[in-house]
């Protein structure tokens, strides 16, 4: 019989329980035992829930307290040396010190897990990194699961993925650690075998990347070492196709392979012919990365084809771990019923797997009702006037070639902008937000609960805007912002005012540690029925003679930080967003806002996993940005802003956005990033962040001066702006005023010297 299994499950709980327990523990409100006890009860509940939903092999070991990559390091005894901690005797305090740092250690670095919004802790490698099998915790969890009668399938981050994701701290080559790391993994597998575990899932998502030849060559020897243990290995690949590595994968001594058939359905055809008899092939047919109810008929079609070749060696699974999916649609009691009927979160996805198994084993007739319900959902999405707005499609279709271009090239625009802006050398500005104080958040919450009348809320936000304007004028900043007091979140604020967006109450997804995000869902054609920011910006402009900068979130970031409909290409959704934003840009301009910033902090993270797909992405993403900013007068100055990313490899694409001014985060990299812009001869104006806004520390004038001197060494003064790294919403007013005062003092001094 084909087996239904799951690759991983959301960890934080239906109401983010784990988040709140973690935070209570960190604040010292609950003891370690209490936290561990809560976490145990939660993971047991999740195991039973999965079993109840029909999962026949339940993932165990994936329910990390903070991060599964950190757990993998503990499992093989490879903690970063600088902490002086021993994995074998690691307690909770030590575990969280690794994750969050303490007075004497900075935390392990964090970065995004492939192309998800989950952040893992980056392993730190040295030539002398030692490994040992440290399976106690995993073994204990396996016993715990079995005591509940749950068929436990331990899940491990694979050794080569673990190595790849880390950084060498001493210039050594991490791959050289592979043989010793493999020994430690074999030790872990031996311990699991001794427990009577039969199957172990071992995740090697790096197989979906472009891997250098020496990394590919490492798979055979590493897996030879692992194969010595008496367990069956299920090698899990996901987030992309691995057909290009079929020969390599088929030759590995593993008992099964998992394929992501959502991201890369075509790879099934590459794997089926000649697949070794009795070797399991796990078909990931339910989307673990998105929120839509599956098209069961289509998924069943894939499974039927696979089963004809594989028989019972076909396993059925989600495309990847459900970590990236919210937990349970049933909690969304306030959502419109039709929209809700289109959604499936983790719990619903497991149910879909169970149905698919019945369908593939007993025939379509066995799930006839469910199939017609699924077909009905597909049809209702296909035909719904809520999804399809003919005017949006018509507008996109009628875009003239070059519609994404400004009237003139940058030099001509710059002259016209300079003529009215009359900015001094080294113009100063900020990135958009000013402190989101407790009072602002309280007013918004009261307004949402209906306890504060709309007019009173508006008045309160106007007060905040007026305050921000006064403070900026007092500081002497040149291009002002209104401060974004009225915005809950830079994506949600816009999504709530656009068509085609829905919002959940409990659709949280873990971002890192206790942090979760609740991405909005784009279900239909996007349009902008009404101006979104014009009244606020116009009010702010009315308070000052200085130029007021309008502030919008760009189309790529709106796309990237949402769950996106799966019935249209992302490029198309992005262009719809761009046109909606362009309406806003033109309305802002008409209202007298002639400096407009369109934030794109997520441009880089949208890059596809495989290099071969980069150009196509950058082409449509760039076009979308330009579309959003097109049609304005040459004299209107378009800014963009990007943060937390390395841009070196996409500089041509950033230049192609053709923003008049770009502000970027650079202070934490000591302006290193800026040199890349200089080497590339970035043509337009640029504002490298001169201080780190992530820390409450007030930057000294000397530090800012040093960074600006570095910037002036590589960028001509007439193209250089002065600004912080990013928005100031997470800071308090006293810090903000002091930091900006220092920034202004340095700028004034420098202007005199230039
Ligand atoms: N304008 C936004 C702000 O200032 C930009 C935030 C971001 O780049 N992440 O908060
Ligand atoms: Zn930023």
Automatic annotation (TrEMBL):
It holds the Pfam family Meth_synt_1. Binds 1 zinc ion per subunit. Binds 2 Zn(2+) ions per subunit. Residues 4-308 form the Cobalamin-independent methionine synthase MetE N-terminal domain. Its cofactor is Zn(2+). GO terms for biological process: methionine biosynthetic process; methylation. Keywords: Amino-acid biosynthesis, Metal-binding, Methionine biosynthesis, Methyltransferase, Repeat, Transferase, Zinc. Pathway: Amino-acid biosynthesis; L-methionine biosynthesis via de novo pathway; L-methionine from L-homocysteine (MetE route): step 1/1. The keyword Cytoplasm does not apply. Gene3D superfamilies: 3.20.20.210. The keyword Ribosomal protein does not apply. Zn(2+) binds at residues 641, 643, 665, 726. L-methionine binds at residues 431-433, 484, 599. L-homocysteine binds at residues 431-433, 484, 599. Residues 426-748 form the Cobalamin-independent methionine synthase MetE C-terminal/archaeal domain. Zn(2+) 1 binds at residues 641, 643, 665, 726. 5-methyltetrahydropteroyltri-L-glutamate binds at residues 16-19, 112, 117, 515-516, 561, 605. Its EC number is 2.1.1.14. It catalyses: 5-methyltetrahydropteroyltri-L-glutamate + L-homocysteine = tetrahydropteroyltri-L-glutamate + L-methionine. Belongs to the vitamin-B12 independent methionine synthase family. PANTHER family: 5-METHYLTETRAHYDROPTEROYLTRIGLUTAMATE--HOMOCYSTEINE METHYLTRANSFERASE. Catalyzes the transfer of a methyl group from 5-methyltetrahydrofolate to homocysteine resulting in methionine formation. This is 5-methyltetrahydropteroyltriglutamate--homocysteine methyltransferase. It comes from Crenobacter luteus. The lineage of its organism: Bacteria, Pseudomonadati, Pseudomonadota, Betaproteobacteria, Neisseriales.
């Amino acid at each position: 019989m084909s087996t239904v299994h799951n690759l991983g499950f959301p960890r934080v709980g239906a109401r983010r329980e784990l988040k709140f327990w973690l935070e209570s523990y960190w604040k010292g409100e609950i003891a370690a035992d209490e936290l561990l006890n809560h976490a145990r009860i939660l993971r047991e509940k999740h195991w039973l829930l999965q079993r109840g939903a029909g999962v026949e092999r339940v993932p165990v070991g994936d329910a990390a307290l903070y991060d599964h990559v950190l757990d993998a390091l503990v499992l093989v005894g490879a903690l970063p040396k600088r902490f002086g901690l021993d994995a074998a005797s690691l307690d909770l305090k030590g575990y969280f010190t690794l994750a969050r740092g303490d007075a004497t250690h900075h935390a392990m670095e964090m970065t995004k897990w492939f192309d998800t919004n989950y952040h893992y802790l980056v392993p730190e490698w040295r030539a002398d990194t030692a490994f040992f099998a440290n399976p106690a915790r995993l073994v204990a969890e396996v016993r715990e699961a079995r005591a509940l009668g749950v068929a436990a399938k331990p899940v491990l981050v694979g050794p080569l993925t673990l190595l790849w994701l880390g950084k060498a701290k001493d210039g050594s080559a991490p791959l050289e650690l592979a043989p010793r790391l493999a020994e430690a993994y074999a030790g872990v597998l031996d311990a699991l075998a001794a427990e009577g575990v039969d199957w172990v899932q071992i995740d090697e998502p790096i197989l979906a990347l472009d891997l250098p030849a020496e990394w590919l060559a490492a798979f055979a020897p590493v897996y030879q070492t692992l194969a010595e243990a008496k367990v069956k290995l299920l090698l899990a690949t996901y987030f992309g196709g691995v057909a290009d590595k079929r020969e390599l994968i088929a030759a590995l001594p593993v008992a099964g392979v998992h394929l992501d058939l959502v991201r890369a359905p075509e790879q099934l055809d590459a794997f089926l012919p000649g697949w070794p008899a009795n070797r399991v092939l796990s078909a990931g047919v339910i989307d673990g990365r998105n929120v839509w109810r599956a098209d069961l008929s289509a998924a069943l079609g894939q499974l039927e084809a696979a089963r004809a070749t594989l028989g019972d060696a076909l396993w059925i699974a989600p495309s990847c771990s459900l970590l990236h999916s919210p937990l349970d649609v049933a909690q969304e009691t306030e959502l419109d019923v039709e929209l809700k009927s289109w959604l499936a979160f983790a719990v619903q996805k497991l149910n879909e797997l169970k149905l698919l198994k019945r369908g593939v084993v007993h025939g379509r007739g066995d799930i006839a009702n469910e199939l017609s319900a699924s077909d009905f959902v597909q049809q209702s999405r296909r035909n719904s006037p809520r999804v399809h707005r003919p005017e949006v499609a018509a507008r996109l279709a009628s875009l003239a070639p070059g519609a994404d271009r400004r009237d003139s090239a940058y030099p001509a625009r710059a002259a016209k902008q300079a003529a009215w802006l009359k900015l001094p050398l080294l113009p100063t500005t900020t990135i958009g937000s000013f402190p989101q104080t407790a009072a602002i958040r309280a007013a918004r919450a009261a307004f949402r609960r209906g306890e504060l009348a709309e007019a009173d809320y508006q008045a309160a936000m106007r007060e905040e805007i007026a305050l921000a304007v006064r403070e900026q004028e007092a500081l002497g900043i040149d291009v002002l912002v209104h401060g974004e007091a009225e915005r809950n979140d830079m994506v949600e604020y816009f999504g709530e005012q656009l068509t085609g967006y829905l919002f959940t109450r409990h659709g949280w997804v873990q971002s890192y540690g206790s942090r979760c995000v609740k991405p909005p869902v784009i279900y239909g054609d996007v349009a902008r029925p009404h101006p979104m920011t014009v009244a606020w910006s116009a009010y702010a402009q009315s308070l000052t003679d200085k130029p007021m900068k309008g502030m919008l979130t760009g189309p790529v970031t709106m796309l990237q930080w949402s769950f996106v409909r799966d019935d249209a290409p992302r490029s198309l959704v992005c262009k719809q967003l761009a046109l909606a934003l362009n309406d806003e840009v033109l309305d802002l301009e008409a209202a007298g806002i002639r400096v407009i910033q369109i934030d794109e902090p997520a441009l880089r993270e949208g890059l596809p996993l495989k290099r071969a797909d980069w150009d196509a992405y950058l082409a449509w993403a760039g076009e979308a940005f330009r579309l959003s900013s097109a049609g304005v007068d040459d004299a209107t100055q378009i800014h963009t802003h990007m943060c937390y990313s390395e841009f070196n490899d996409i500089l041509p694409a950033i230049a192609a956005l053709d923003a008049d001014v770009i502000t970027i985060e650079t202070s934490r990299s000591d302006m290193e990033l800026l040199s890349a812009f200089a080497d590339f001869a970035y043509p337009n104006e640029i504002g490298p962040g001169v201080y780190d806004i992530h820390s409450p520390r007030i930057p000294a004038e000397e530090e800012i001066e040093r960074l600006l001197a570095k910037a002036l060494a590589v960028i001509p003064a007439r193209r250089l702006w002065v600004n912080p790294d990013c928005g100031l919403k997470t800071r308090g007013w006293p810090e903000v005023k002091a930091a900006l005062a220092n920034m202004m003092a340095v700028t004034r001094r420098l202007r005199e010297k230039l």
